[in-house]
Structure formats: structure tokens, C-alpha cells
């Protein structure tokens, strides 16, 4: 079950078995997203850096792939047209994020859609996505970052 809270999706995930705490935290889990370079050719390479800051008064537990604790979606308007990374390690790892602690992850990616076809020229928004398993669904806030895809692929000069 997902709850859209600002610009970051947070899931109760595995804690659904044990039940989720119904008391809301006093402050949110905050996300920051940067894209470098911010302008690429269709199918071009870029890196998304996601920083999550636990601004709640509780410890948060992330459970899932150790390589995909925080990932991203590529949006055109409200439509998800791409995701990243396309592959996560097949392991189950727990990570505690204490109050006021941050987690930063880098995801090298390419400007492709859900079918692995190069994105068409235009401006896309990159939104952070994460799963928190404990203690409850967290209201999160944070801006998106723009990814500009040029109209045509650029030819590399030798």
C-alpha cells in the first residue's frame, strides 16, 4: 500500500504484517534530488543523487534491496515514464535512519523510458521513491529535479 505524501512515496511494506503505528510523526522525512548533468541527449547518461533526511522524532527502518533503499521515477507531468535503477541487488537488508540522520545515494542512469527506448526531447521531473518498513507510513516532502532531454541525439566527435 502506497501513500502519496508530497513528492516522495513511502510504503509501510513489511510492517503490514505487524500493523502500522497510527500516530503520525511530528515532522516529515525530507527528500532532496539532484541530477547531473541536467541536460542530456535521448538515451544519454546522467546521475541522480537522492538525499533523505529523517526529520521525524523516531528511528525509521528501511527494508529491501541494499542497492535500492532510495530510488527515483521519471515523470512527464503526472505520468511515470521511466524509473531507475533498472536493476537492484537481490538481497534483503535493513537500514536504520535515526532522527536528524541523512542517507545519500547516487544512481547512474540513462535517459530511457519504461520500454528502454530513448526518452523524447523535453523536460522531465525526477521524483525520489523509497520504502520505509517501520514504524509507519511517513509523510514526506521534497522538490523534484528537472532532467532536460535534447530533441536529437548528439553525434560524438572523434
How would you describe this protein?
By secondary structure, the chain is mainly beta. Helix content is 0%, strand content 48%. A 5-stranded mixed β-sheet has the order 4-13-11-7-8, with no helix packed on it. Strands 10-5-3-12 form a 4-stranded mixed β-sheet, with no helix packed on it. Strand 1 and strand 2 form a beta hairpin. The N terminus is likely disordered.
Key features?
158 residues; 13 strands; mainly beta; elongated; five-stranded mixed sheet; 48% strand
Secondary structure layout plus pairing:
Blueprint: E1 2-5, E2 8-11, E3 29-36, E4 39-40, E5 45-54, E6 60-64, E7 70-76, E8 79-84, E9 93-97, E10 102-110, E11 122-130, E12 140-141, E13 145-149
Parallel strand pairs: 3-12, 4-13
Antiparallel strand pairs: 1-2, 3-5, 5-10, 6-9, 7-8, 7-11, 11-13
Distance between the termini: 50 Å
Radius of gyration: 17 Å
The proportion of residues forming helix, as a percent range, comes to under 10%
Q: Figure out the total of helices.
A: 0
| Total strand segments | 13
Helix/strand order, N-terminal first: EEEEEEEEEEEEE
Average pLDDT value? 76
Amino acid at each position: 500500500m502506497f501513500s502519496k505524501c508530497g513528492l516522495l512515496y513511502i510504503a509501510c511494506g513489511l510492517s503490514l504484517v505487524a500493523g502500522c503505528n497510527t500516530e503520525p510523526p511530528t515532522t516529515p522525512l525530507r527528500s532532496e534530488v539532484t541530477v547531473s548533468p541536467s541536460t542530456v541527449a535521448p538515451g544519454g547518461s546522467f546521475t541522480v543523487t537522492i538525499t533523505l533526511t529523517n526529520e521525524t522524532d523516531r528511528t525509521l527502518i528501511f527494508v529491501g534491496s541494499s542497492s535500492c533503499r532510495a530510488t527515483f521515477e521519471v515523470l512527464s507531468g503526472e505520468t511515470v515514464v521511466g524509473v531507475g535503477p533498472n536493476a537492484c541487488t537481490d538481497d534483503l537488508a535493513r537500514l536504520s535512519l535515526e532522527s536528524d540522520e541523512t542517507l545519500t545515494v547516487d544512481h547512474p542512469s540513462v535517459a530511457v523510458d519504461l520500454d528502454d527506448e530513448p526518452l523524447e526531447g523535453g523536460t522531465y521531473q525526477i521524483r525520489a521513491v523509497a520504502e520505509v518498513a517501520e514504524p509507519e507510513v511517513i509523510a514526506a516532502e521534497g522538490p523534484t529535479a528537472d532532467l532536460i532531454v535534447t530533441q536529437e541525439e548528439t553525434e560524438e566527435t572523434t
